[in-house]
Amino acid sequence: MAHWVFKCLKSTRLLPDLITYNILIRASIREGNDQLLSQLLRDMYIQQGLKPDAVTFGSLIYGLCKEGNITVARKLWEQMTGNGITPNIAIYNTITEAMFHIGKFRDIIMLLKEMAMEGCKPNGVSFEILNGAMSNSWMKEIPRSKTFGRIHMTDR
Fold first, then answer.
1. Rounded to two decimals, what is the model's pTM?
2. In 129-145, which positions are buried (b, 16+ CB within 10 angstroms) versus exposed (e)?
3. 135, HSE (Cβ side, Cα atoms, 13 Å)
4. Can you tell me which family this protein belongs to (predicted)?
5. Residue 147 forms beta bridges with which residues?
6. Distance from C-alpha of 28 to C-alpha of 38, rounded to nearest angstrom
7. 25-29 long-range contacts, Cβ below 8 Å, gap at least 24?
8. I want to staple 80 with a disulfide (CB 3.0 to 4.6 A). Which of 53, 57, 131, 141 is the partner?
């Protein structure tokens, strides 16, 4: 579907804006269409001169985490923050959940500290991910009332 929409846009000579690219990028990730994803990113950068925003990076990080490629997702995270783009709660949740699924519980704690330092407040999804991590045997050793930065684990 995303490929069809992109072809229609090109045939009508309408110039997609960043929002349109973000929608198409997210759709191509959900469809697993890596070829279209590459084409969209190339077109966005080279032909349109558009720079990715937090939504663009969030979609890419989501796709990488979905594939289990957290190392590359973290490198992309570093590129994003290096470009002055602050991660939002959805991006933090994406990385946190991916770390949970591969058992990187210490990294989750570090990410929570980073999140607190950046002033990003957890939401319901964050607490659901943390609840799953807390039920894991390794995380049971950490008292539930433990405070990580400004995030108090028993607060909801």
1. 0.77
2. bbeebeeeeebeeeeee
3. 6
4. Belongs to the PPR family. P subfamily.
5. 152
6. 10
7. 25/56, 25/59, 25/60, 26/59, 26/62, 27/1, 27/2, 28/2, 28/3, 29/59, 29/60, 29/62, 29/63, 29/66
8. 57
Phi, psi of 148 (to 5 degrees): -110, 105
* Six token digits for residue 108: 């989750």
Q: How many angstroms separate the CA atoms of 73 and 98, rounded?
A: 10
Mean pLDDT of all residues in 93-116: 89
Residue pLDDT, tens place only, 39-66: 888 888 887 889 999 999 999 999 999 9
d(CA 141, CA 57): 34
Q: What is the mean pLDDT of the chain?
A: 82
CA–CA separation, 102 and 116 (whole Å):
23
| Among 18-22, 100-104, 140-144, the least confident range | 140-144
Tokens of 32: 């697993």
CA distance 14 to 128: 42
Residues 139-155 have pLDDT tens digits of 555 555 444 444 444 44
**Around 37, how many Cα atoms within 13 Å sit in the side-chain half-sphere?**
17
